[in-house]
């Protein structure tokens, strides 16, 4: 189970803890079932700025050569401006910014709207977590799929006691970031869920704005 005190930066949630009623309403409006890990986290801390905010990418994006910046996880609700059904919710990015309608936009990036992280529901089964780059003609980069089977022993050892599977979006990028001691971006999956919390839960990492962007 993800610890909100580790996941978020301490500034507080965007909305009240998620209830079953709000969850049903939001999922009905979005037309998709949200991953269990996201729901579980929102029941205890509903959205907010992330404590550590980089995630490895398999190829260059407009942000960096081997990772993307991730800033805020959207609340599951509709009262906060940055909630899934709020003023700057998932539908806003499609209608006003021209983002492709591929699923649900769940996290923003330090670029102030020029790239986003989404759950991509276009393929059968559970969604992939993708980065959508508005600066590069809405290029879609898969950060992790449900079928991804790349595990790393150190992360498994750290989180095994919590019942969490740890997977990389890109192994080489994570190793380079770890060597630099600036950011160690990882993907954390609640067991049995595709939801890749685009979070950095490794203590040695710093915020992405301290990383070298190339």
Structure write-up:
The chain has 214 residues and is of the alpha+beta class. It contains 6 helices and 11 strands. It has helices at 4-7, 20-30, 36-44, 90-97, 153-159, 171-180, and strands at residues 48-49, 54-56, 67-69, 72-73, 103-108, 115-120, 128-133, 139-144, 164-167, 187-190, 196-197. A 6-stranded antiparallel sheet has the order 1-4-5-6-7-8, with helices on one face. The chain has a 3-stranded antiparallel sheet with strand order 9-10-11. Strands 2-3 form a two-stranded antiparallel ribbon. Strand 7 (128-133) and strand 8 (139-144) form a beta hairpin. The longest helix has 11 residues, at 20-30. The radius of gyration is 16 Å and the shape is globular. The protein starts with a helix and ends in a 17-residue tail after the last strand.
Gist of the model:
By secondary structure, the chain is α+β, with helices and mostly antiparallel strands. It is built from six helices and eleven strands.
N- to C-terminal distance: 34 Å
How is the largest sheet built, in terms of strand order?
1-4-5-6-7-8
What is the count of β-strands? 11
Overall helicity: 10-25%
> Order of helices and strands, N to C?
HHHEEEEHEEEEHEHEE
Structural class: alpha+beta
Provide mean pLDDT, rounded.
74
Tally of alpha and pi helices: 6
* Low-pLDDT residue intervals, each spanning 5 or more residues: 146-214
Largest sheet: 6 strands, antiparallel
Radius of gyration: 16 Å
Shape: globular
Please indicate the percent range of residues in DSSP E strands (runs of 2 or more): 15-25%
């Amino acid at each position: 189970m993800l610890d909100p005190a580790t996941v978020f930066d301490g500034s507080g949630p965007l909305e009240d803890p998620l209830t079953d009623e709000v969850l049903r309403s939001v999922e009905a409006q979005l037309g998709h079932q949200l991953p269990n890990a996201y729901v579980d986290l929102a029941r205890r801390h509903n959205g907010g700025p992330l404590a550590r905010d980089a995630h490895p990418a398999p190829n260059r994006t407009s942000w960096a050569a081997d990772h993307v910046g991730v800033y805020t996880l959207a609340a599951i609700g509709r009262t906060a401006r940055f909630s899934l059904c709020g003023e700057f919710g998932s539908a806003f990015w499609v209608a006003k910014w021209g983002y492709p309608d591929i699923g649900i936009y769940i996290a923003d990036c330090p670029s102030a709207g020029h790239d986003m992280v989404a759950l991509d529901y276009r393929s059968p089964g559970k969604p992939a977590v993708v980065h959508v780059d508005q600066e590069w003609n809405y290029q879609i980069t898969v950060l992790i799929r449900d079928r991804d089977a790349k595990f790393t022993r150190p992360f498994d050892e750290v989180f095994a006691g919590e019942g969490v599977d740890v997977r990389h979006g890109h192994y080489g990028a994570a190793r380079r970031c770890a060597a630099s001691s600036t950011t160690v971006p990882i993907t954390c999956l609640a067991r049995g869920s595709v939801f890749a919390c685009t979070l950095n839960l490794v203590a040695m990492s710093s915020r992405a704005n301290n990383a070298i962007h190339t």
